[in-house]
TrEMBL record:
Belongs to the peptidase M20 family. Zn(2+) 2 binds at residues 91, 126, 379. The keyword Metal-binding applies. Its cofactor is Zn(2+). Residues 207-307 form the Peptidase M20 dimerisation domain. Zn(2+) 1 binds at residues 80, 91, 187. This is Peptidase M20 dimerisation domain-containing protein. Keywords: Hydrolase, Metal-binding, Zinc. It comes from Neobacillus mesonae. InterPro entries: Amidase_Cbmase (IPR010158), Bact_exopeptidase_dim_dom (IPR036264), Peptidase_M20 (IPR002933), Peptidase_M20_dimer (IPR011650).
Amino acid sequence: MEINSKRLHQRFYQMAEIGKTEKKGVSRLALTKEDRVGRELFIKWLKKLKLNIRVDDFGNIFARKEGSNPSLPPVVFGSHLDSVPNGGKFDGTLGVLAAVEVVETICENNIQHDFPLEIVMFTNEEGARYTQPMLGSGAITGVLQKEYVYQLKDDNGIAFIDALKEIGYLGNQENRVSKVKAFIELHIEQGPVLFDKGATIGIVKGIQGISWQKVTFAGQADHAGPTPMAQRKDAFVSAIKAMDKIHRWVSKLKDETSVTFGKCSVSPNVVNVVPGQVTFTVDLRHPNKKILNQRVDKVKEIILTIASHTETEEQIEEISFMEPVLFSERLVKEIENICDENGYSYHAMFSGAGHDAMYMNRLGETVMIFVPSVDGKSHCEEEESLWKDIYQGTDLLFQLVCKEIGAYSYDFK
Ligand SMILES: [Zn+2]
């Protein structure tokens, strides 16, 4: 008994037509016409499987199949169908379509099970149209307030609630899922680790913690000509020295720490003026909260030292701190076992990007499965994954779901 890889492949390219771009990527932004058409196709498949379909008050879609005991918490799996502008066709969509395939395989083989199962499709995961990523999952897990979500505006000033009504997907609060036995999300890695290692499966142990700091160096703006080099308090030079020192330190750590200086502004930003003030951001990531905090402390120490050496004033402000998320060790172990039994090569890792699973973790035991991204490319039209990897990833999802729902009268061989 196995998944129907041909059917999965066929459905995948059917969905990829919706919002298809010139270079065969996808633009299917949340709550647009393309999103609506994608949802309709998804629901058409769910109806054929005779699942009980619900839409909640954020447009998240759930499709449920009862087990022998409806009072048990459901095993939920899925992902998102929205994309970034000119994004790839695998991000999110793969997890949703793999979920449909898994359930169809369960249905057509008449597999009996105890726990209910639910496929889920989350709204606005990307944070592209409404700049709040993982909006649908964040809203039902108590991370985001309904009032806040509803009034969010897109670039054209259209409120989330109006866009949701416009495409006809404003459902009821009682349709949310509130407790899960397990949440499982299959997703592309979106980075190069698995592809470079030649591993098929990424077992995701958790999601890295992220610290964002805003750093300002204040020196003295001066004329670029008459001011002698030795007397300058050049804020830009201080910033560059600090960034260089932090960057070299992190590179030498050779662990999961990453650092990015993604944004920088120079004042007055004039060709013949010594920069008086520079502000830049520091994005620091690590899967362990304690170590992440130590990294933040070290960054602050470097900045203080540079400021005192260069006679500039420093200011460090925390913009955001997202704690690392640890997924279920039990589910990680289950996946390892299934991989071992089936000879699937795997690599245990942390996700550097946020996913709906990060919030669903609050509702019950959660885990993610990654499949490799060719050359690590994602959020672009070139995003690609190999079908041999996708089939193994989907089969793994199928076997894990069967275990979690307490399936009986089945045989995988
Ligand atoms: Zn995604």
